[in-house]
Amino acid sequence: STTERTFIAIKPDGVQRGLVSKIIERFEVRGYKLVAIKMVQPTQEHLETHYQDLKTKPFFAGLIQYMKSGPIVAMVWEGLDAVRQGRAMLGATNPLQSAPGSIRGDFCIQTGRNICHGSDSVESANHEISLWFKEDELCSYKHNSQNLIYE
Ligand code: DAT
Ligand code: MG
């Protein structure tokens, strides 16, 4: 449906490297609708909840350390197949496997500094959106271009 939502975040390295506008632009020009955005300095506890499925991985501590090293830009984007297309637009987890033209494939090199996050399923998107945003931070509105982007 055209109201599918995904949680996309620009990680601390993406912010520090000045890639915020470029990453937002990818989603914006494609036609996805921005429904929430904020800059946030996440806490250890919040990040451990966000990445709870990875807590047994050897890289978990380093991942949390990196993710709390500075502010991130948290966003919700809405549109047709937003979760799956969002993942395709970010590229593979390991940037060495991310196709050129994807965000990771164009702007980063190593898995542990891959500049952006995107939900991997509709279920995790809903979970992540409620973890990062309060209900009243999500804006429901009709995109002016709705009838030009969708038939
Ligand atoms: P993704 O971010 O593509 O959903 P993931 O959920 O498997 O990937 O892992 C979350 C993040 O953890 C990933 O963006 C970067 C880090 N990570 C994953 N695998 C890693 C590894 N083998 N070494 C270091 N960091 C890793
Ligand atoms: Mg993931």
Largest sheet: 4 strands, antiparallel
Which class do the helix and strand fractions yield? Answer: alpha+beta
Helices, by number, come to: 8
Mean pLDDT: 98
Residue fraction in strands: 15-25%
> What ligands does this structure carry?
2'-deoxyadenosine-5'-diphosphate, magnesium ion
- What is the string of helix and strand elements? EHHEHHEHHEHH
**What is the rounded distance between the termini?**
13 Å
What is the count of β-strands?
A: 4
- Radius of gyration in whole Å, from Cα? 15 Å
Low-confidence stretches: none
Strand order of the largest sheet: 2-3-1-4
Global morphology: globular
Portion of residues within helices: 25-40%
Keywords: ATP-binding, Kinase, Nucleotide-binding, Transferase
GO biological process, one term: UTP biosynthetic process
Cofactor: Mg(2+)
Binding site for ATP: 11, 59, 87, 93, 104, 114
What is the secondary structure topology, with strand pairs?
Elements: E1 5-10, H1 12-16, H2 20-30, E2 33-40, H3 44-50, H4 60-67, E3 72-78, H5 82-90, H6 103-107, E4 116-118, H7 122-132, H8 146-149
Antiparallel strand pairs: 1-3, 1-4, 2-3
The structure holds 2'-deoxyadenosine-5'-diphosphate and magnesium ion.
Residues 54, 59, 63, 93, 111-112, 114, 117, 120 line the site of 2'-deoxyadenosine-5'-diphosphate (DAT).
